[in-house]
Write a structure and sequence with these properties.
The structure is a single chain. This protein is α/β, with parallel strands linked by helices. It has one domain: Rossmann fold (3-Layer(aba) Sandwich), CATH 3.40.50.300. 30% of the residues lie in helices and 29% in strands. It has a 6-stranded mixed sheet, with helices on both faces. The relative contact order is 0.18.
Amino acid sequence: MTDYAAEKAVFRARGIERVYHMGDAEIRALRGVDLDLWAGEFVVLLGASGSGKSTLLNILGGLDKATAGELWYRGQNLTLADDAQLTLFRRRSVGFVFQFYNLIPSLTALENVQIVTEIVDQPMAPLEALRLVNLYERRDHFPAQLSGGEQQRVAIARAIAKNPAVLLCDEPTGALDSKTGILVLDVLEKINRELGTTTIVITHNATIANMADRVVRIGDGRIQDIQRNSHKQAPRELSW
């Protein structure tokens, strides 16, 4: 991978396949995915449940490995990486936000964010991370004292406190009502804009695509369409 475009891509996927075996059954979750992702982009992976978008996100984040094909991250071939190398990649380069917040109930919002700053070399100040998600005033509250949207914003603050190059979000508004979901999406857009973090959000909700630089539609384990938004905007109304 020596050409100029390959060197500038954050992720470069070629021919990615993922096959799972359940007894005698073979499940082909991904069927030859080719995709380039660029620094500072906000990309939405759009598709129905079971389309393969979560599998692709997990492979990009080093949580899973492709059955076939190659995945490069800034010149590093992740398909050849062992478990220790993938752990280091996740620790240094990737922030994760999932549908469920996975906060530690016995720790305050600030303490939940502080945990990740202890495992990276150049973390963001935890209070600054909470300021970015508009939760500085709630820093001493425990998860049970926070709303669902506030808990998700703490989870986002925890992810960005690592100062990751890439933020991967798996249905981050899936457990939230429409109004609260908008607030969370606005926070993700703000982080992408202000920090330049390459942000990838997977969803089945087409309305969220309004905020993306590019929308990648996935179906049956394949990329069906890639659309660039010339006038992206944060969504003001979500259809649930």
